Amino acid sequence: AQTVTQSQPEMSVQEAETVTLSCTYDTSESNYYLFWYKQPPSRQMILVIRQEAYKQQNATENRFSVNFQKAAKSFSLKISDSQLGDTAMYFCAFMRQGAQKLVFGQGTRLTINP
Amino acid sequence: DTGVSQDPRHKITKRGQNVTFRCDPISEHNRLYWYRQTLGQGPEFLTYFQNEAQLEKSRLLSDRFSAERPKGSFSTLEIQRTEQGDSAMYLCASSSRLYRGRETGELFFGEGSRLTVL
Question: 20 to 30 A Cα–Cα from A47, which one of A91, A107, B45, B115?
Answer without folding.
Answer: B115
